[in-house]
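Review this today:
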Amino acid sequence: MPLIDIQPQRFRKIQYDAPQKGKVEIKVDANAAIDIFIVPASRIDAWKRRSSEYGGDGFLRRKHLELRVNIGPEFEDGWYLVLDNQSDRAVTANYEVYEL
């Protein structure tokens, strides 16, 4: 699992191509709670503005996330896994994405 450090009040985004079969499994483990988002590549700027119109999924205040996601046509240009640290302390997270 790749390891990533996220500074306080910052986010990290990891870009992926659209999956061939439209399904992925995502695993995230962090040493403190973070917000985790799945964002279509075409809507990343809306997400950065914190617009509710970004068209993805969000999982707030999680130290662990393991889920299977159906990636729809809005993700055809690719997508981002966004790990958002809203705390005042740095966070270390492991993440992994598998195409199903």
Q: What stands out?
A: The chain has one helix and six strands. The longest strand covers residues 23-40. The mean pLDDT is 93. Residues 3-99 form a domain with the Jelly Rolls fold (CATH 2.60.120.680).
